[in-house]
Design a protein that fits this description.
Helix content: under 10%
Shape: globular
Strand content: 35-45%
Strand order of the largest sheet: 1-2-9-4-7
Largest sheet: 5 strands, antiparallel
Structural class: mainly beta
Number of helices: 2
Distance between the termini: 74 Å
């Protein structure tokens, strides 16, 4: 091993004129490090409970074998703390950067740099450390411009990982084991029904571990649950080697109970469930009973309330990943946006159009950084009739690379649909992005983190599809990352729940966002609406206010930044004054059968409180 100082430094270097140089030949074991001196005044002081952003410029030829390493100092002396990341080889100067975990109690200084544990050369320079400030950045404007956030005094009684709005305005919140191995071993599985208007919670008996199941609202308003956790990692299993379950139940809001139905054909942990135009449910993705990715496609027959046998379901025999973001298009085909949970994206372009009736698939071009779309957000933008979708942010859990703020948009009205770059999400890049369609046709993007379950990014923005632009708004006062959900409520507010950081604690505070439209004067109202409507039907509406448009919103059922059934469907209206007519689209692929929230907008873009309408 040899080491020296070199005058080879980056062209834009602002710190010194030299770099440290290290070479290893005939490597056997251990490592050598280029780190700061551990002497006081060289190794920087830190504050317990804080986090720090570290940067080092480097060149290295070692593949693999170069790591960003941190040592910690306590009253008993120095000791190795952690490797923050493994670095790729680079012939040109590049920057390694990472955020530390929370500084433990008793640690007063750290020393950091790069370590080499393979044959090769390493150069470093420009070491820097900045304390991370998680405080939301100030945003100019009153609530009529940016809305407002409230944190309720009532807290969640469970780890709410799965959230579904019921057709009576309550929310079904499911923890199952809540990502708690001790609870799984004890058979302690939990769920509640929350009434937002009273902040009351009702316990619901849970028959198996619904942690990481798939779920969707059925045409009759029941909630289908499928898959989940059969076993936690054990022994020498890796930390993500969960085993999937085959079990399936439905939740009935009429009696607030789970009811068992036939098992899925195969086991699924992290499956997606997408409702089709005929009311049946497509499902795929996730981890099987062997802790391996499953290639099995499943179909739930709603009329029979049972899963079809494998030989009646067209099979791609392809692995879609965990919680793949699969949306139903107006022609009955489906679109995989490239969003998912954990690790890299699919091979090829990372996004696909998929004909589930024939099991054919076609790559869709244009998705940038496809392997950084782990726990991105995906959503229809504007009315579903526009057939535009957006994917926002993301990261890579396996690589723990900092999240991105890229936004890509695809328009399926084009002859050859392809992703095109949209406006970047304001602020730092982030994963765990929660996206919510709002009744004024904007999209809320809130919460997230820079790294795997760490480094909360407390920013929020509203996307306007008309101007194709973002507006920064005030942020959720509560930092939220993994296992957080956001749900649109019938009154137009948004409830934001949960967060499960790397220490496996869980955030029990509830935030409620009131969008700007709630501060713009008197809201229009829907005074009369039929309880149900058929495809293609013209319905009579009673309204008050200067009403200009109407829409139907699907009740959200979200987990892990995924709700593939969320959409806003435009209702053309006619008439004046207090009596209007609205036209229900005749294409069930635009709005699969079930309960929807009907609201009207006035000429100032202010929505009414929603009324429930059943589409069949």
């Amino acid at each position: 091993m040899t080491s020296s100082l070199s005058t080879d430094v980056p062209a834009n270097s602002t710190v010194g004129t030299r770099s440290q140089d290290l070479t290893i030949a005939s490597y056997v074991s251990g490592d050598a490090k280029l780190i700061q001196s551990e002497q006081a005044g060289c190794a920087p002081a830190v504050v317990p409970g804080a986090q720090y952003d570290l940067k080092v410029d480097y060149k290295t030829t070692a593949v693999p074998g170069t790591n960003l390493t941190v040592f910690a100092h306590t009253a008993t002396g120095w000791q190795y703390w952690t490797d923050l990341k493994t670095l790729p080889a680079s012939a040109a100067w590049t920057t390694a950067q990472a955020r530390t975990p929370v500084i433990p109690q008793g640690v007063d200084r750290i020393s950091f740099g790069l370590s080499l544990s393979a044959n090769g050369s390493l150069k470093t320079t420009n070491y820097s450390m900045v304390k991370y400030d998680p405080s939301p950045p100030p945003v100019a404007g009153g609530p009529e411009l940016v809305g407002s956030w409230d944190v309720l005094t009532t807290q969640l009684p469970i780890r709410a990982i799965h959230s579904t709005l019921l057709h009576d305005g309550r929310l079904l919140l499911i923890a199952g084991s809540g990502n708690d191995g001790a609870a799984f071993t004890a058979g302690s599985f939990k769920a509640v029904v929350w009434t937002p208007s009273t902040n009351a919670f009702k316990d619901v008996p849970v028959p198996y571990d619904m942690f990481c199941a798939g779920h969707v609202t059925l045409p009759d308003g029941k909630v289908l649950l499928a898959g989940g956790t059969e076993a936690f990692p054990a022994g020498t299993d890796g930390p993500t080697a969960f085993k999937g379950a085959k079990k399936s139940y439905y939740f009935d809001p009429a009696d607030d109970q789970f009811h068992q139905i036939g098992d899925m054909t195969g086991a699924h942990w992290y499956p997606s469930l997408t409702k089709l135009g005929n009311g049946d449910v497509w499902s795929a993705g996730g981890i099987d009973e062997q802790a391996q990715g499953t290639v099995l496609t499943e179909m739930f027959d709603t009329s029979a309330m049972d899963w079809l046998p494998q030989n009646q379901v067209p099979q791609t025999w392809s692995y879609w990943g965990t919680y793949p973001h699969m949306f139903l298009l107006d022609d009955g085909k489906m679109f995989y946006t490239g969003g998912h949970t954990f690790g890299n994206g699919l091979p090829g372009t990372g996004a696909r159009v998929y004909d589930w009736t024939t099991a054919q698939m076609w790559d869709v071009p244009g998705l940038r950084q496809k392997d950084m779309r782990d726990q991105a957000g995906s959503v229809f933008i504007g009315p579903a009739q526009d057939q535009k979708l957006m994917i926002v942010g993301g990261g890579n859990t396996d690589g723990n690379a900092p999240g991105i703020n890229l936004v890509d948009i695809i328009d399926f009205k084009q002859a050859t649909p392809a992703y095109v770059p949209g406006p970047d999400l304001p602020g730092p890049g982030k994963t765990y992005v929660n996206l919510v369609n709002l009744p004024d046709r904007t999209v809320l993007a809130a919460n997230g983190a820079q790294l795997n379950r760490a480094g909360n990014v407390q920013t929020a923005s509203l996307y306007n599809p008309v101007s194709n632009s973002w507006k920064e708004i005030g942020a959720d006062p509560v930092g939220r990352n993994y296992h957080s959900t956001s749900i649109l409520l019938p009154d137009g507010k948004v409830a934001i729940l949960g967060s499960n950081p790397l220490d496996n604690s869980f955030e029990l505070r509830i935030s409620v966002y009131s969008p700007p439209y709630l501060f713009k004067g008197t809201r229009p109202t829907v005074t009369a609406v039929p309880g149900s409507a058929r495809y293609g039907q013209t319905i009579e509406l009673g309204v008050a206010g200067n009403v200009s448009s109407a829409s139907l919103m699907s009740p959200m059922s979200a987990t892990h930044q995924t709700d593939t059934n969320a959409r806003l469907v435009d209702l053309p209206i006619a008439g004046t004054g207090g009596s209007r007519t609205a036209q229900i689209p005749d294409n069930p692929n635009l709005l699969p059968p079930g309960p929807y929230m009907l609201s009207v907008l006035d000429t100032d873009g202010v929505p009414s409180i929603s009324k429930w309408v059943w589409i069949s």
